[in-house]
Amino acid sequence: MTKTKIGVLGAGTWGTALARMLARNGCDVTMWSALPDELKAMSVTHAHPNLPGMCLPADMHYTADIEEICGDRDVLLFAVPSVFVRSTARKAAPHIPDGQLIVDVAKGVEEKTLMTMSEIIEQELAADGKHTHCNVVALSGPTHAEEVARDMPTLIVAGSPDEAAARKVQQIFTTPTFRVYTNTDRCGVELGGAVKNVIALAVGIAMGLDYGDNAKAALITRGNAELARLGVAMGCKAETFAGLSGMGDLIVTCTSMHSRNLHAGMLIGRGKDVETAKKEVGQVVEGINALPAACKLAKKYKVEMPIVNAVDDILSGRLAARDALATMMGRQLKQE
User: Fold this and answer.
1) Of all helices (H) and strands (E), which one includes residue 78?
2) What global pTM score does this model have?
3) Which residue out of 5, 112, 130, 196 is catalytically annotated?
4) How is domain 188-329 classified at the architecture level of CATH?
């Protein structure tokens, strides 16, 4: 039986956890990174420094050659941080065959263009006029890499307007501990994955100020209301934000000990500046990257997003954390 060939672009925690899972599920997996030393260490140790206790299968392959990773693959998995998706797609495009099935797991919205990660990949592929049909499926949901790397039960959504492409991703990625649903609302799936990181910063800030569970629950619930309002204004389905890639991802990011955004927010709430918080977290804090785009989207679509705006006020230094949250509490009373 021929193995499904997977190329993984990016050797961070999420890309690595998925690579391991796919390899253990019988796929032929090759990982690529722009950092050759990172790959060499993983190939020798069969481990990842930020995923303690995880062992990578010995039959996994590694390459620093972008042409090699893109050739002859059933699926190309984009797992680089959101700020590197465009540059990686541009670098890979000449080597990606037309008709390639691509799965994106990076979460974010580009500040300058307000495009989602899937849209960025499609745009870069279309630039040469040679890619007329590449399917980009967004894979998103409440999925901490630390738990997937330990085969803990996880549910996720494959978002694509092409139902056949979403179903193929569903079949390839489903394992006994990793259940995949499909959704035709790709934009809603991606928007949930990006904006929830900003809400998690707000929850972390509240925790850093020693506010309690009441505040945490309120920020999660009202944060999801902001997200859904924005999504509907952008043409997404309201029900998407009640699902795994909406409320599900929001809950896990706002409550888990694994959440970088929650951790960064707590540090900021305790008085650390943004750069210090990022350094202490030690990994990419996607909510900080997504914040400018979230603010611009709110303005563009004329959607009220007080929590997102409060985080922006805090991170920009316009308001102290306690004052920003007090301002939200003092807003005009209204119906839920």
Assistant:
1) strand 75-78
2) 0.93
3) 196
4) Orthogonal Bundle (1.10)
